[in-house]
Fold this protein.
Amino acid sequence: MLRGASSLVVSTASLRFATALLQATVAIFLALSGFSVSMIPYVVIDLWVSTALGSLLASLAGGTRSAVVAGLSLMAIGLAMLALRPGLSIVAVAAAGVGSGMAGSVLAPSLHRLSSGERPLEGVATYSLGLSLGLIAATLTSSLMPKGYLWLAFLIASIIVLTSLAHSLLAPIHPRANLSVRLPGPKDFVGLFKTRRFANAFYVNLLYSTIFPLVLSYWPLYAVKALGLSTMEAFGFMAAMFSLSAMLRFASAKVSRVRRVKLVALGLLVVSTALLSTGLWPLALAGLLLFAVPHAVVYPVSLYESFASAPDEEVKANYVISISSGVGEVISPFIASVAIALGGLHGTLYLAALPLALGATIIGLAIR
C-alpha cells in the first residue's frame, strides 16, 4: 500500500460501500417502511442531486483532510437517521448524498499524488481497488440482509463509516496528498480540452461509462430471460466478474506501461461486448468475465491520464472527467430502451454496445 495512503483507501472503500448500499436498497427499504411508491423516485433523485451538490461544497472545506472528515461525518449521520427515523428520509438521504459528494471528489486525485514515477498507476489503482472492495461488500450485504432488516444494513454502514472517520482523524495524510480543493472555471475547461491527452481520456471514459450500466443493470435480466440462467447464477457470475476485476486492479498498481495496458483493455472491451451480444450462454458468460479487464483498467487509466495532463490541478481535472461518467450513465438507459424496443433483450441490447466499444478503442489508439 502507498505510504500515508491508508486513511484515504479506507475512506474510499467505506464511502463506496455506503453509497452503493444506499443506491441498491433505499427504494425497497422505503417501500417496505410504508412510503408511497409515487414518492420514492423523489428520494432517489434527492440522493443523486445531493451527491452532486456535495462535490461542489467540497471547495468550502479547503483541503483533502477537511473534505473527507466533513463528508464521512455527514454520511454517517444520514445513514443512522435513515435507519432509525425513515420518516425523515429526504433529510437523511440528502445528508448522506452531500457527504458522499464532498469526500468522493478529493480521494482519487489525492491518492494519485502519492504514486511513484516507476508505478504511475499506483494511486488510481489503489483508489479503484477501494471502490471495488466497497462495491463487493455492499452487494453481499444487500443480498444477504432479510428484507425486514434493511434498516440494520444502514445502521451497520453508519458504524463502518464512523470507524473510517476515526481512522482518518488518527492516521496521518501525507502532506503531498492534502490537496487544495478548487472548482474549475470556464478557462480551466477550455485549457483541459486543449490538452489532447485529457480530451482522449474524457471521450474514452464517456463511451465506457455508457457501456458499463448496460452490464451492471441489465446482465441479470439478460441472463435470466435470454440465456436461461437462474437468478442465483446470474448474480453469482456478476460477483465473480467484480471479484476478478478487484484482483486485476490490485495487480495494476505495479504497471509502468500505461498505454499498453489501456489498449489491451479496450481491445477486450470490444471482444467482451461482441461475446455478450451472441445470446449463447457459454459465449455470453465468457464475455461477462472478460469484461472484468476493461472494468479494472479503463476508468482508472482515464483518471490517471486526466490527472497527468493537469499537474498540480488534479482536483479540477477530476471534476471535469467526472462529467464524462455522469453523461454516459444518463445516455445508457436511453440506448438500452431503444435497443430493447427494436430487437428485445436477445437481439440488440449488447449489439448496441459494440460500436461504442469500437469507438473507445479507436479514440484510445489516437494518442501516444
